[in-house]
Amino acid sequence: MSLLAVGISHQTAPVALLEQVSMTGDDTVKTLHELVGSEHVSEALVLATCNRIEVFAEVDRFHGGITDVSRVLARHAGATVEELSPYVTVYYEDQAIGHLCTVAAGLDSMVVGETQVLGQLRAAYALAQEEGTVGRELHPIAQRALRVGKRVHAETGIDKAGASLVSVALDRVTATLGDLAGRPVLVVGAGSMGALAATTLARRGASVTVSSRTPASAARLAESVGGRQADLDQLAEELTAADVLVTCTGATGTVIGTDVVSTALAARGGRPLAIVDLALPRDVDPAVAGLPGVQVVDLEMLQGERAADPSRPVAGSVAADDIAAAHALVELETSLLRAERQAAAVAPTVSALRSQAAEVVDAELLRLSTRLPDLDAKARSEIARTVRRVVDKLLHEPTVRVKELASAPGGTDYADALRALFGLGLDGDTASLSRAVTVDPELPAGTTLSALDVLSVEGSPE
């Protein structure tokens, strides 16, 4: 079994495509079961955020696993694998572990150093546990990634500026409207992102009103930040009064249409309105951005800023030394986990080899007792000890070495060689074994699906 990461993120895909593949909680549950129900996937975890949809899966074949996962993603998006392939990235084994840890640390986020993704990964892991789609292979990987994320934020200064998508978006609004202290702000959505938005706004001194499809949730959030709750059917009136709208619901369709915004604008007396849309898919009709007096800050705008200057985090406040320290921690933890996984992977081979040797010794001693029935007990015992010592000494070096070599990249190949040479539990011929374990060692991290040309191997025996 091997770890595979296949997904789409803000690094490679436009927001329109991220909207197309975005998932609600029910979508994620369905996707998890589709994945583990496919031919080559045994375990799966799906991380779905406003920046990415990524699948981390244990697979028994490289190309077969990619094919299974990409087909599930394509079906969910209502697209073909060919249409998605230029935007889908693939990470394998050590690369996949390193990528997950990098994501957990906030190093792959649109706003480098943000902490929300760590909570999102924790929730994704909890959901996969609840649905029974993670097992002994993914458990330690997910737990290590969560540990790495916590270590990075505790031991480096990567998040000392407290940057998040919300804070960065509000900075863009502040640059236009000025200080938000005392200004009326409407937050639509009472989930995790809505809570972060309301809390951030309250800290900046804004007067917060919260509206949600679930009034009780909106009321609790409003109370926690010293604000008030408003019903969604009062949206036009609330927009008339607000200087800023922050919307981040989990809806699958438009929540804020041009009609309601136009109605509010007509009653504002020419006051500008800033709208921050951090939902995926977007809550606000794209046509709203064309209305006079409206400033819209959304994921597409923030992604465009990142694309204009890839070397600079959107927040612009994370020191290079802190980023380097975070990457060093990720590399250290990834190396430790790789050694643990590879040592665990060769353990069954070592055990099988020693068991097979013991069976051979027992069979030969039985044969000896049959051929030499008059051999006295003392001599028989000494012969048995001598034969076992010889076998132990012969096996000592290869078993110790295969454990040592396991910690190096490609180390499990030595265990595969032992299994092939000694016939340890092989279900097929050596050619089948080779197809199962052979992957291009030069596969670059984050290779796109189109570059792998996975479609050409869909019908292969792998």
Automatic annotation (TrEMBL):
Site (Important for activity) found at 99
Kindly tell me the pathway this chain contributes to: Porphyrin-containing compound metabolism; protoporphyrin-IX biosynthesis; 5-aminolevulinate from L-glutamyl-tRNA(Glu): step 1/2
What InterPro entries does the database record attribute to this sequence? Answer: 4pyrrol_synth_GluRdtase (IPR000343), 4pyrrol_synth_GluRdtase_dimer (IPR015896), 4pyrrol_synth_GluRdtase_N (IPR015895), GluRdtase_CS (IPR018214), GluRdtase_dimer_dom_sf (IPR036453), GluRdtase_N_sf (IPR036343), NAD(P)-bd_dom_sf (IPR036291), Shikm_DH/Glu-tRNA_Rdtase (IPR006151)
Q: Does the keyword NADP apply?
A: yes
One of the record's GO molecular function terms: glutamyl-tRNA reductase activity
Q: Which residues bind substrate?
A: 49-52, 109, 114-116, 120
Which Pfam families does the annotation name? GlutR_dimer, GlutR_N, Shikimate_DH
BP term (GO), one: protoporphyrinogen IX biosynthetic process from glutamate
| The keyword rRNA-binding belongs to this UniProt entry's keyword annotation | no
The residues that hold NADP(+) are: 189-194
Catalytic activity annotation: (S)-4-amino-5-oxopentanoate + tRNA(Glu) + NADP(+) = L-glutamyl-tRNA(Glu) + NADPH + H(+)
The record places domain Glutamyl-tRNA reductase N-terminal at 6-156
Quote the function comment for this protein. Catalyzes the NADPH-dependent reduction of glutamyl-tRNA(Glu) to glutamate 1-semialdehyde (GSA).
What further note is attached to this protein's record? During catalysis, the active site Cys acts as a nucleophile attacking the alpha-carbonyl group of tRNA-bound glutamate with the formation of a thioester intermediate between enzyme and glutamate, and the concomitant release of tRNA(Glu). The thioester intermediate is finally reduced by direct hydride transfer from NADPH, to form the product GSA.
Q: What is this protein called?
A: Glutamyl-tRNA reductase
Which organism encodes this protein? Modestobacter versicolor
Q: Gene that codes for this?
A: hemA
